[in-house]
Design a protein that fits this description.
Transcription Regulator spoIIAA; 5-stranded mixed β-sheet; 4 helices; 5 strands; globular; STAS_dom_sf; Anti-sigma factor antagonist; STAS_dom; Anti-sigma_ant
Length: about 120
Amino acid sequence: MSMHTLRVDSHVFSDSVVVEAQGAVDVSTAEDLERRLRSALVASRGRRKLVLDLARVTFFGTIGLQLLIWADQECRERGVTLWVIASERAVLRPIEVAGLTGRFHITSSMPSVNEYAVAEQSQTA
């Protein structure tokens, strides 16, 4: 039995939905993150971005990578951009080892929602 815990919160803004995770993303906790991501995808209707804040994640297992790929596919189908906030090796290393670094919009901090719009515009320019 895993001793890992995960806290997941979400916030809806005018042009984005932010899902924040804190703790370990593993087989025993992934269901909570998946449930919150599903709700966020529903809430993202009419919004431009879904932000997954993993800055306070201490462990990111294979199931986390699977959820990230799934969320990215779902966002693309909805015309929503998935942003991933990750600054710790616990999250960045698995993404890198899996060869997924170029697939996601990854940033190291949580700028304001308006800063995201500027960042998206500069990436498409």
